[in-house]
Amino acid sequence: MKKLIISLTLLAGTQLIADVNAGEKVYKENCAMCHTVNGGSALGPDFNMVSYTRHKEEIEYYAKDPYSLAKTFGYSANAMPTLPLEDEQFKDVADYIGSLVKFKKWMIKKKPEGKEKILVKSSENNETVETENKG
Hints:
The protein has 135 residues and is mainly alpha-helical. The protein folds into two domains: 2-101, Cytochrome c-like domain (Cytochrome Bc1 Complex, Chain D, domain 2); 104-135, no CATH class. Helix content is 49%, strand content 10%. It contains five helices and three strands. The chain has helices at residues 2-30, 47-53, 56-64, 66-73, 87-99, and strands at 108-110, 116-121, 128-132. A hairpin with a 6-residue loop joins strand 2 (116-121) and strand 3 (128-132). Helix 1 (2-30) crosses helix 5 (87-99), helix 3 crosses helix 4 and helix 3 packs across helix 5. The longest helix has 29 residues, at 2-30.
């Protein structure tokens, strides 16, 4: 049973890496002309910020239906084109965008005094520590 669990865990991790790699390819072929990763000037938002503020499911939903994106956030209805992608490609690009930033906005814990704290898991000893958000 232990071997089965380990095998399934490794298989799932391998599949996620494949999805992220496929998503990077979709990004480069369909999104990079309007969106950057790690800053730069572009028409659309940088995908690091999208990764920080949005869940993968939300990213996939808005990529499939840019009209809903425009309506929800008050953008022009033609701000983002409808992309001729398969469902699996939308999922892959959402996996890629979601993988860009490890710690997400919804992981920030608000303290009563209003200061933001971030819970960070140490890679050295696997302990969770609390640190102040400096920006």
